[in-house]
From TrEMBL:
Keywords: GTP-binding, Hydrolase, Nucleotide-binding, Repeat, Ribosome biogenesis. Belongs to the TRAFAC class TrmE-Era-EngA-EngB-Septin-like GTPase superfamily. EngA (Der) GTPase family. Pfam families: KH_dom-like, MMR_HSR1. This is GTPase Der. One of its GO terms (biological process) is ribosome biogenesis. Residues 4-167, 175-350 form the EngA-type G domain. The keyword Metal-binding does not apply. GO terms for molecular function: GTP binding; hydrolase activity; ribosome binding. Associates with the 50S ribosomal subunit. GTPase that plays an essential role in the late steps of ribosome biogenesis. GTP 2 binds at residues 181-188, 228-232, 293-296. GTP 1 binds at residues 10-17, 57-61, 119-122.
Length: 435
């Protein structure tokens, strides 16, 4: 499940985010002439010749109040800590600078493969400039142009050659889950409290990066794996305090999980950062449970839980399918219910409904609330079938997909949820026209 990670490192303005966007295939971060503009995303998926990988733009990790060289050092450290292969990017129009040399020195000491990308080689004549970068000491420099998309294929070929060889993991029925949330909500306390009651069977290096440690335990015959507990452990590097870095860690953990526990802090309530992190889990299509921790800290009456729940439902409208559990890592309140809940959400996430049963439900739904007519054209639903699990994905064959608007789709989803237990999992409904 764990894909290799590629990090792009290099001083500001060499073109890291331009290349990041090209490789990720979407315009997901802002490119401007100003060095150090705020970037949206620094973590994305890439694919090249059938190899899937995670991609990090370390340039997006800005440690506030740090001098220039400290910033560059922190970014190189992120690359060294997180990546299996590092793309070291330089500017082919400027030659080697002090900052390039600083990065090179850090990378020599790291035991990770480094591929040099010489960017801004926009035309054939300037290719000669590339040879200067042999002096960095990382082998053949690869000329590229982010502006024109040149040389990227050769660069990625080189990157892929350096991927670690991972044996196919043995088939595993373990349910993989992660705990995500902003700092101090109690993620590591929860992990410890959960594990305190369980027999931990192994703690092993999994995935491809050395510091990704998964912890396994068995509960009522079901094996569980807590993803990325090492990421939760505090190591005390300066970049770990940045929000970009913690969001990146969370996205990586989400990728590798079947079920994601979105942890909130009852004491502090819901914050903006909680919503961003939860949004990523939702987008990734994983099973989700909302865990409200530190429940012991509130003075409660008969309404406290209902009120808190209402607030969560209002703030996280798109997560209406996610069950909510109120716990305390400190007193262990309700923690023993967690494994069963995770297991149930995982079953729902992987649930497959037969076409005949599904069509009965859909046809009943249409009988109860007839399909809408939009600009004199009536939506007709012919047939529905579940085409995928994790998350459950249903294709509905119709006369014209444009006629299946959000509200009717929502109605169908609710009818499906009334008939089958899909709690904790998103359902994707896709309209296709029947030929
Ligand atoms: P970062 O700070 O390393 O992430 O650099 P950016 O990706 O933000 O790019 C810095 C500037 O260089 C922007 O103005 C880009 O448009 C420009 N740039 C990026 N790649 C190329 C390239 O291949 N050729 C040229 N001429 N400009 C480029
Ligand atoms: P993380 O940054 O999300 O991993 O959070 P930690 O597990 O390090 O917890 C942050 C702080 O909250 C620590 O001081 C914990 O002792 C405290 N804490 C964690 N869970 C609970 C809880 O359920 N109740 C109370 N009262 N404190 C908690």
């Amino acid at each position: 499940m764990a894909n290799p990670t590629v990090a792009i490192v290099g001083r500001p303005n060499v073109g890291k985010s331009t290349i990041f966007n090209r490789i990720a295939g979407e315009r997901i971060s802002i490119v401007e002439d100003t060095p150090g503009v705020t970037r949206d995303r620094i973590y994305a998926h890439g694919e090249w010749l059938g190899h899937n990988f995670n991609l990090i733009d370390t340039g997006g990790i800005e440690v506030s109040d740090q001098p220039f060289m400290q910033q560059i050092t922190a970014q190189a450290e992120v690359a060294i800590d997180e990546a299996d292969v590092i793309i070291f990017m330089v500017n082919g129009r400027q030659g080697i600078t002090d900052a390039d040399e600083r990065v090179a020195q850090l990378l020599y000491r790291a035991d990770k493969p480094v591929v040099v990308a010489v960017n801004k080689i926009d035309n054939f004549e300037s290719r000669a400039d590339v040879y200067d970068f042999y002096a960095l000491g990382f082998g053949d420099p690869n000329p590229i142009s982010g502006a024109h998309g040149l040389g990227l294929g050769d660069l990625l070929d080189e990157v892929i050659k350096n991927f670690p060889e991972v044996p196919d993991p043995a088939p595993d029925d373990s349910i993989r889950f992660s705990l995500i949330g902003r700092p101090n909500v109690g993620k590591s306390s929860l992990v410890n409290a959960i594990l305190g009651d369980q027999r931990v069977i192994v703690s092993e290096v999994a995935g491809t990066t050395r510091d990704a440690i998964d912890t396994k335990f068995v509960h009522s015959g079901q094996e569980f794996t807590i993803v990325d507990t090492a990421g939760i452990r505090k190591r005390g590097k300066i970049y770990e305090k940045t929000e970009k870095y913690s969001v990146m860690r969370a996205m990586k953990a989400i990728d590798e999980s079947n079920v994601v526990l979105v942890v909130l802090n009852a004491e502090e309530g819901i914050r903006e950062q909680d919503k961003r992190v939860a949004g990523y889990a939702h987008e990734a299509g994983k099973g989700i449970i909302i865990v409200v921790n530190k429940w012991d800290t509130l003075k409660k009456d008969n309404h406290t839980q209902k009120q808190f729940e209402a607030q969560i439902r209002m703030e996280f409208k798109y997560l209406d399918y996610a069950p909510i559990i109120f716990v305390s890592a400190k007193t262990k309140q309700r923690l023993q219910q967690l494994p069963e809940l995770i297991e149930r959400v995982n079953v729902n996430h992987e649930k497959r409904i037969s076409s005949s049963t599904l069509n009965e439900v859909i046809m009943d739904a249409v009988a109860m609330t007839p399909t809408p007519t939009i600009k004199t054209r009536k939506l007709r639903i012919y047939y529905a079938t579940q085409v995928a699990t994790a998350p459950p994905t249903i294709v509905v064959f119709v006369n014209d997909p444009e006629l299946l608007h959000f509200s009717y789709k929502r109605y169908l989803e609710n009818q499906i949820r009334k008939n089958f237990d899909f709690s904790g999992t998103p359902i994707h409904i896709i309209a296709r026209s029947r030929k």
